[in-house]
Amino acid sequence: MKNPLLAFTDKGIYCEKAKVYLDPWKPVNKAIISHGHADHSRWGNKQYITHNRNIPVIKHRLGEINASGVEWNEPFVVNGVKFSLHPAGHIPGSSQIRVEHKGEVWVFSGDYKTEDDGLSTPYEPISCHSFITECTFGLPAFKWSPQKEVFREINQWWTENRAEGKTSVLFGYSLGKAQRLLKHLDTSIGQIYTHAAIENMNEVLRTYLKLPDTIRITKETKKDELKGNLVLAPPSAHGSSWLRKMVPYETATASGWMAFRGARRRRAVDKGFVLSDHCDWAGLLSSIEATGASRVICTHGYSDVFSRFLREKGYDARTEETQYEGELSEMNSTSESE
């Protein structure tokens, strides 16, 4: 395709006509940011444009940056190119980025999911000619159960641990996953304690989200206080000395990767719950169909498999390399002091 509206460069996804990058992975002058996860919003850009709800998140993570915000469906023009942000449903404040010039429309999905988690603004399909999609879980093997069923399992696990006098330690990324877990935990079972990284992010998000009460774990927290209650912690806390004061405890991870047989064993947790903030196979396909796009560009995840399937379905589909990591980034991040 000659001179596409959006091109993949060594710095990120670039709109040459506007001289703007979308979620760049190297420092640039002007960046439009889809959401606050570390692989999509990086330090060093001279100017950040994002959704208003994402500004406190990226400022918490990146410091005093030059950031301006817009609302959903609020168009803004840069050098004659019209941009707007639309709900992605991935985490609070997450956006799809719509780009329009001379009647041609592209949509960069960022990371997204179609199930309404009761916390993020629900995903909305946006009509376009070209759609850039993640493929984190782009295999038919990934099929999510309704979150209501998953949270029933999580709350039952906590109830059983409480009956046995154990602390329930549940791992989830500090931005998005932890708050989703918190939103749907049954607080009648016991109290919810939090690792500092998660509580710091809770404080940021509580400026516009209603979340259940939590108790920050400090050096003064006693082991007996935790017994029978639930602790929310980032994945980086697993196997750390921080967990010692919680003995006896049971550990669990909430992630889409728990759908893989053996994933729980590899992560050395006692229990795995299949819960992702990304689309499963069916969600990806239905989302793409709803856009009406004929051209689909597949990025991070199972992009080769997914793009091949789309070509068989008649789409003009291809893959592009990025430095986005999807749920791998959320599971493996060591930058949990945020």
UniProtKB/TrEMBL annotation:
Signal peptide limits: none
Keyword terms, alphabetized: Exonuclease, Hydrolase, Ligase, Nuclease
The enzyme's E.C. designation: 3.1.-.-
InterPro entries: MBL, RibonucZ/Hydroxyglut_hydro, Xnuc_lig_assoc
Molecular functions (GO terms): exonuclease activity; ligase activity; RNA endonuclease activity
SUPFAM superfamilies: Metallo-hydrolase/oxidoreductase
Protein name: Ligase-associated DNA damage response exonuclease
Organism: Muriicola soli
